[in-house]
């Protein structure tokens, strides 16, 4: 586990990224950061061990040639364009569940914006306790701790904000257009690529913390998925035939989430609602909604209301507000 603030290693990487077209001498780095050349060399070697390709030429210095596609704690932090989200980063090479770890950290007072992240989650879960399968090193599991001053009934809206942020980020980084399936799935061509799980900690009627978990299939090959889910799951690599920069995807999601979250706090849910509905795959289609009590409602998905509840019009013309259900598009 690595609990991260701005380290010397990250400052060196920042300098290399900003001077990628030229060499930086070890002495120049030392002068700027106030460290020894031996320390610089050690940090360069550590970055190389994390997958950064760095050219070192005697009397000229260091030049960054390429960054890893794999998830990198240093790469996430360097260039992260948020004020709070992800600035306190807790990175694991491997963990059972980022969501469980974030729950514990939130109970212990972790600050707003704390991010728990890994590319190898062994006991991940989604809604209703379902297992989330993620091949080692080829996906992203992350849990974001928020400290919102919101009423309990507004917390489900945060799931929808997260979904819009993910859709925008994936399009920005890859050009791929994705769909949202209410309430928490991101689909491409009908197959699931991202799942979102929102949980909260309360004290009476007060919300103490919200933990938004995201599981994302990024660089998995088709055969990496268990056979029983290959027909319903996909990844960016499966779709495009190439690997993608997972750290950049995380940076971009956090950037969009923070922007949308602040707009939501300032302007209300209406600014998010139309964006969510513009990507919703079920709007205008007939669906089955299986409720927790086993009852199944069938009808036309009309949209979402100002609380984020799904509006379903049944065959008798009655409108049902659905706050939690499994949705099947007919």
UniProtKB/TrEMBL annotation:
GO BP terms, alphabetized: protein lipoylation; regulation of DNA-templated transcription
EC number: 6.3.4.15
Family annotation (Gene3D superfamilies): 2.30.30.100, Bira Bifunctional Protein, Domain 2, Winged helix-like DNA-binding domain superfamily/Winged helix DNA-binding domain
Pfam annotation, one family: BPL_C
Reactions the enzyme catalyzes: biotin + L-lysyl-[protein] + ATP = N(6)-biotinyl-L-lysyl-[protein] + AMP + diphosphate + H(+)
Keyword ATP-binding: yes
Domain of life: Bacteria
GO molecular function list: ATP binding; biotin--[biotin carboxyl-carrier protein] ligase activity; DNA binding; transferase activity
Signal peptide: none
Family label: Belongs to the biotin--protein ligase family.
Name of this protein: Bifunctional ligase/repressor BirA
